[in-house]
Amino acid sequence: MPSPKPIRNGIFPKVSERSMSFTGKSGASPATEKLRRPKTVPDLRSAARNGVVSPTSEEMKPKKLTKVLLNVTIQGSVGIVHVIINPELTVKDLISATVKQYVKEGRRPMISCSNFDDFDLHYSQFSLESLEREEKIAELGSRNFFLCKKKQEVAETAASSSMSSCSKQAEKAAQLGSPCPPWLKFMSFLF
Q1: How many CB atoms lie within 10 A of CB 122?
Q2: Are residues 77 and 120 in the same domain?
Q3: What distance in Å separates the CA atoms of residue 22 and residue 99, rounded to the nearest whole number?
Q4: Could you tell me the pTM of the whole model?
Q5: Is residue 80 domain-shared with residue 141, that is, in the same domain?
Q6: Residue 171 buriedness (CB in 10 A; 0-12 / 13-18 / 19+)
Q7: 2 within some domain
Q8: 168 and 104, same structural domain?
Q9: What DSSP state is assigned to residue 165?
């Protein structure tokens, strides 16, 4: 294959005659290589003179969120329920929206959405305190929650009155005069 430039007298062509991809240099002078770039930083003084107005403080404020994506895990269910809700709504509204979304998706175990007051919302499954129903979602500081059935306080008080603690049972046994097991004598801190 013939070369594009003939070799003169056995001498290779000059660097300026070689291809640009071979040497990485072009044959053009450095003055012509400069690219004209636009100004990226505006001159603020000239903008004020030309009548351009800077943005107002209202325009510089961050915009408020209109919707928030929350992840709610429901006790006994596999996976999380994604709920998109307004951050100005309350925890009670989040509970109702979550239960409605859960029923709409047809998840199992099935739950009834007749009474939303039967559910409590927690930060996690390990959190003991439930969230206040009137608290706004934007003030919670989290986007992951845990929803579980509310414990029946009436059933708990009845169960606690019928069942007594181990120390009370040991006291009753001691008062009735029943023989105490030998290992219980060493545990005086129970009485």
Answers
A1: 17
A2: yes
A3: 68
A4: 0.51
A5: yes
A6: middle
A7: no
A8: no
A9: -
The tokens describing 65, both together, are 């969120």
Would you call 22 helix, strand, or coil by DSSP? Answer: helix
Distances (CA, A) of 131 to 19, 73, 119, 156, 173: 73, 15, 11, 20, 42
> How many C-beta atoms surround the C-beta of residue 99 within 10 A?
23
CB 166 within 8 A of CB 152: no
184 and 191 in contact (C-beta within 8 Å)? no
> Does a structural domain hold residue 24?
no
Mark whether 141 and 173 lie in a shared domain.
Answer: no
CA distances in angstroms from 83 to 96, 108, 112, listed in the order given: 11, 17, 18
Q: Which domain holds residue 91?
A: 68-149
112 and 141 assigned to the same domain: yes
Report the alpha-carbon distance of residue 1 to residue 178 in Å, rounded: 115
User: Which mean pLDDT values do the consecutive 10-residue runs of the chain (191 residues) have?
Assistant: 56 55 55 65 58 62 86 94 96 95 92 86 93 95 93 50 54 61 60 52
